[in-house]
Amino acid sequence: MPSLGVTANTTAQAIAAERLDRVHRPVSMTVDNDGGAADQVVRVQDIFTPAVTDGVAGPVETTVDRLRTTVPQGDQVTFNEADLKGIKCLGSLNVIGDSVDTDCHITVGYETV
Amino acid sequence: MLELTPRPQFTVVTPPKLLQEGYLVTFTKAWPSTMTNISGGKEPRTFRVESTNQVPYPRGYIIPTGDFRDIDLSNGSGTFQESMYPNRDQSLFEVTLGLRAGNYLVHFLMPAERYISELEASGMVPLTTDADLVYLGARKPEDSPPEDTRIKMYLVKNMEPLILRVFCLPGVDYEKCVLDFTFNKCDLREIPEPTAEQVLKSKILRYVTELKYA
After folding, report:
1. Cβ contact (<8 Å) for B176 and A49?
2. SS (H, E, C) chain A
3. Does B80 touch chain A (CB under 8 A)?
């Protein structure tokens, strides 16, 4: 199972790029805000451009929040597979925070199915 | 405690799912006479498969809920055209279609705006804007999973466009609809005067009008 660690940022941080024929399912996520400067609101984002359809002739890049959690300063939160069950990213799998903090570490494990 | 599996008395052989080298195919007389490469006008034509080659090609589309995307298999540069038809007179593409799990349906149309699966009573045609009729004739992912495909299409040069209408069902914001195509490319050679036995053994390929009873 691949995983990637990033630090909190207000720009979406890519964990897994989009696959044409697959979806990404996060199966674990740890937000280590032990040394962080403030509470951190972390979101798992799914970013993709839909197909041209009958209803939408000119689709644009779309961002969908698949999970949102607040991790208090000085705390660490871990989500396991059961917590993340049902979350599916159709496009790329990303995480984003509500502040830039190099001392807040986010690690996401995922599977591509 | 201890079991020795007895030697089987016979072996069940499952025939291959795809056309193989040496297999015979017969195009019925319903195929349009304009398709001179395979149609005999008033007579069926039989061909032998000289060689085959399998080419997988997965396609994925992210579709918003309640909307649909047409996938036109014919050749061309149109927005919905996928250029999956043969270009050679002697080619037959036997295409298996696996539908990866998801919240969507697939309808088949040929030609455009003519559904292949419809009933006979007035108005009993698939309709994506109708909560009931959207399910009429539709194939669901569980009908043809990639590991056990049950949908096959036969494509030849200059055939009318075959269109797959992929509809995202309500209940999700978007769905990624992944269609696993595998093209069994068959090189055909005609048997000018097939025997009755050869025709009997051949795989009969019917035209879409015969499927509709039209």
Report:
1. no
2. CCEEEEEECCCCEEEECCCCCCCEEEEEEEEECCCCCCCEEEEEEEEECCCCCCCCCCCCCEEEEEEEEEECCCCEEEECHHHHCCCCECCEEEEECCCCEEEEEEEEEEEEC
3. yes
Nearest to B68 among A22, A53, A91 (CB): A53
- Give the distance from residue B209's alpha carbon to the nearest chain A alpha carbon, in angstroms: 26
pLDDT per residue as tens digits for the range B92-122: 999 999 999 999 999 999 988 889 998 989 9
Ordered mean pLDDT values, 10 residues apiece, chain A (113 residues): 96 98 98 97 98 97 98 97 97 98 98 97
The tokens describing A62, both together, are 């779309």
Whether the CB of A11 is below 8 Å from some CB of chain B: the reply is no
Q: Hey, is the C-beta of B64 within 8 angstroms of any chain A C-beta?
A: yes
Show the tokens assigned to B103. Answer: 């919240």
In the three-class reduction of DSSP (H, G, I as helix; E, B as strand; rest coil), residue B201 is classed as: helix
The answer to whether B149 and B96 are in contact (CB under 8 A) is yes
Closest partner residue to A53 among B59, B69, B100, by Cβ? B69
- B23-67 per-position pLDDT tens digit: 999 999 999 988 999 987 788 999 999 999 999 999 999 999 999
Q: State the ipTM, two decimals.
A: 0.94
The pTM score is: 0.91
Enumerate residues 107 to 126 of chain B having a beta carbon within 8 A of any beta carbon in chain A.
none
Task: Decide: B165 and B68 in contact? Cβ < 8 Å.
Answer: yes
